[in-house]
Amino acid sequence: MIYLIFTAMRNFFRNKKRYRVLLMALVVITAVLTIVLGVVLGMRTALYEKASRYFAGNIVVMGYSGKSFSLIENPEEVVQSILHLETRGIPVLGFSRRSTYYDFNNIELFFSGYYIKQRRMVGVEWDLERPFLNGFNFIEGSVPLAGDENSVLISSTTADQLQIAVGDELIVSIRSDRGRTNTAGLIVRGVFSESSFFGYQTYVHRYTLNRLREAPLDRVNEIGVYLRNPLSIEAEAAMQLTLELEKVLPVFSVMETRKEYAEQARKKRDNLEYGVVSVSAQLEEIRDLIQAITIITGVVIIIFLGIVMVGVGNTFTMIVWERTREIGTLRALGMQRIRIIFSFLIESVFLGFTGVILGMLLGIGVLEIIRNFASFPPNMVSTLFLTQGRLYWLLPPRGILLIIALVAGASILGSLQASLRAGRLSPVEALRRGK
Q1: 98 three-state secondary structure
Q2: How far apart are CA 192 and CA 60, in angstroms?
Q3: Which CA distances in Å does 248 have to 62, 77, 78, 81?
Q4: Helix axes 337-373, 2-14, angle to 10 degrees
Q5: Does pTM surpass 0.90?
Q6: CA distances, 98 to each of 204, 209, 335 (Å)
């Protein structure tokens, strides 16, 4: 085998001029595949990271009793269930306790003669969620200090329309649970860049929102869980958390789609019941869009790989024809058919892996240039998939293995027919044709 590898390597470099064009094609297809896969995975990760901040975590515990809004009456039991996830092998980064207020018609922000409505207002605990809120792309300011109940975080969409900056006092107005209009003057401590999809949301301290709502100070509407590697363990984590909650509280099944989420919120119940919903369920439409983009990209890549296979096949056909006399000599000296076949296949492996290595280096270089130097217009589509204003790319180990398998596999399959033809040549026929 070592002799075959050495011989194949020698023949590969000896025929490098014939392989040159084909090698360039493999480098280009590998680079394109690396860029596309890295960008798509990065966009998906960035979207989920933004959504996790928006929806309180990667998986969120809701409590329903027949009303349209969620209420957590047993926050201590829920938090203990979350902490037990580690014993089930679910890596937890942290959790959130939030009070939430959804009412686009009754949440208004005022500043210097301007006003704007908000989709919702969220009450958070600054210190509890600081590691995750720090992921915002802050244009100005930062996350307020722990316990600061007079601060507010707003999006760049809101700040632009109000012409407001960090340090200014913002008037917040909502209709309370008792039907009265309450207001509060809060200091803008941070302005984060966000598209309108996630932008019409204001963050205040949980106690501040509860006071505005005239609700109990410790009221909690949602408790979320932030996970490590959420895209791969989200579904399992939701199921395991449901099992933990089931030990101490009445629960219903995991909400796996947005339709189930809406149905559970409207369902009439005799008592409060708890359920778990994931970011994937809440982002079902966008998730389907990303999957569609991924599928279309995959089809295009497969077509390119098919073209590469044809090119490899034609190149190896010519190489076998040119080396017919050499094959005949080796066969006459006693080399078996299978060793002839393996010799050409190993050459194709060298071709494929050389193309993969050079192509991946080129692709990663392009991705790094885009990440560090490319700027994008701050519109809804681009901002939705950016991380702190930059295009974040991701290429996990299994992504690298996928690229290697596709490109190297295309090279090997493309050369298979010509290699088999070389192995079938008899010594006499090969020597006679090689004259």
Answers
A1: strand
A2: 23
A3: 15, 7, 9, 9
A4: 60
A5: no
A6: 10, 10, 74
pLDDT of residue 220: 96
d(CA 304, CA 312) in angstroms, rounded, equals 12
Task: Dig out the tokens for 143 from the structure.
Answer: 């996350």
Count of helices and strands (H, E) across the chain = 16, 12
Q: Which of 38-52, 199-213, 269-283, 300-314 has the highest mean pLDDT?
A: 199-213
Q: Where are the domains of the chain?
A: 2-49+285-433, 55-282
Tokens 């917040």 sit at which residue?
A: 172
Which residues is 181 bridged to in the sheet?
175
Angle at 261 between CA 132 and CA 64, to 5 degrees: 90
The separation between the first and the last C-alpha atoms of the chain, rounded to the nearest angstrom, is 30
Q: Are 26 and 351 in contact (CB under 8 A)?
A: yes
Residue 120, beta-bridge partner list: 102, 201
Nearest to 224 by CA among 278, 187, 169, 283: 278
Task: Give the CA distances from residue 165 to residues 21, 132, 162, 169, 355, in Å, rounded to whole numbers and listed in that order.
Answer: 57, 22, 9, 9, 52
CB 58, CB 226: distance < 8 Å: yes
pLDDT tens readout for residues 330-352: 667 667 777 777 777 887 888 88
- Give a three-class secondary structure readout of 20-73: HHHHHHHHHHHHHHHHHHHHHHHHHHHHHHHHHHHCCCCEEEEEECCCCCCCEC
